[in-house]
Specification:
Blueprint: H1 18-31, H2 36-42, H3 49-60, H4 71-84, H5 88-93, H6 100-116, H7 126-130, H8 132-140, E1 158-160, E2 170-171, H9 182-190, H10 195-202, H11 211-225, E3 239-241, H12 248-263
Antiparallel strand pairs: 1-2, 1-3
Helix pairs in contact: 2-3, 10-11, 11-12
The structure holds a DNA duplex (21 and 21 nucleotides).
Keywords: Activator, DNA-binding, Nucleus, Repeat, Transcription, Transcription regulation
Protein name: Myb-related protein 123
Subcellular location: Nucleus
DNA sequence: AATCTCTCCAACCGCTTGTGT
DNA sequence: GACACAAGCGGTTGGAGAGAT
């Protein structure tokens, strides 16, 4: 009993023809994205649903930018990679119009080689190195292990009110384990945050993170470090649903990206 | 001109996660 | 809780084109 094949036997493989692209584009334009297996069947494409999805998302979807990755984008990729490791999808979300596949390919074909040639500051692009302003930055670059711990995916998160000492505790309903202590489920959830990366951002004494942001991620730090048995039970606090999905990783990214924006003179973006 | 080697990138593949029943 | 299915993700592969010999 092997794995059930995800695709019919009679499927096309390899490069997509113009006709196939048109067929897929028309179908998605009419019926929308999703249900990719049905897209493949209903549109009359002899393709695997996954293949249709990938073709659409990486190539046909309106707004996809192709080629000519700018210096700014390159810097962004380098810095995001330092922060996130090989989480191409997350990196791609921060680069409008770029796909995870393209960024991954660009990294593998260009940046990884480029950075290999710069062993002393592996995460600083050549453009950055030429800038005096970036000289400081260079000394601060810390290489992230390629096998940096993978953050968990987090859905809706509840958090308790700010405590008197300014510590915010986070509770994730989806991660709460029946029968386990609240502390355990907290710890489980908090693995989501790579503390070394947090510290990497936070201990940057030279960084000019605006005060508000400093407070923001200080709180996140404390979330990760306040998980002591002495802390009061989360059930003691009234929980509030955040207005929107709150993703600690996103918060971290925002902090880092604001730094980047300021760095690149794009503060108003 | 022919052949080989290298580079790039679209596409494939297997695994994980989310969701519905 | 178990299962099935869909979607998402990242590593890898293979073909096309460019450059070298």
């Amino acid at each position: 009993m092997g794995r059930r094949p995800c695709c019919p036997k009679e499927i096309n493989k390899g490069a997509w023809s113009r006709e196939e692209d048109q067929t897929l584009s028309k179908y998605v334009a009419i019926h929308g994205e999703g249900k990719w297996q049905k897209v493949a069947q209903n549109a009359g494409l002899k393709r695997c649903g996954k293949s249709c999805r990938q073709r659409w998302l990486n190539y046909l979807k309106p707004g996809i930018k192709r080629g000519d990755i700018s210096v700014d984008e390159e810097d962004m990729i380098i810095r995001l990679h330092r922060l996130l490791g090989n989480r191409w999808a997350l990196i791609a979300k921060r680069l409008p119009g770029r796909t995870d596949n393209e960024i991954k390919n660009y990294w593998n074909t260009n940046l990884s080689k480029k950075l290999q040639k710069q062993p002393t500051s592996p995460y600083v692009s050549s453009s950055l190195q030429t800038s005096k302003r970036h000289e400081e930055e260079k000394t601060k670059q810390v290489q992230v292990a390629p096998e940096a711990p993978r953050p968990r995916r987090v859905k809706a998160i509840q958090y308790s009110e700010m405590l008197e000492n300014g510590v915010c505790e986070i509770n994730s309903p989806s991660n709460r384990v029946e029968g386990s202590s609240d502390e355990a489920s907290f710890t489980d959830f908090l693995i989501d945050i790579d503390q070394s990366q947090l510290l990497n951002i936070g201990d940057d004494s030279n960084s000019k993170v605006p005060q508000m942001e400093e407070e923001d991620h200080t709180n996140i730090h404390k979330v990760g470090l306040t998980n002591s048995p002495s802390s009061s039970s989360p059930s003691d606090h009234c929980h509030h649903l955040l207005p929107d999905k709150f993703d600690p990783l996103e918060t971290l990214l925002d902090v880092e990206l604001k730094r980047m924006a300021s760095f690149l003179g794009l503060e108003n973006d």
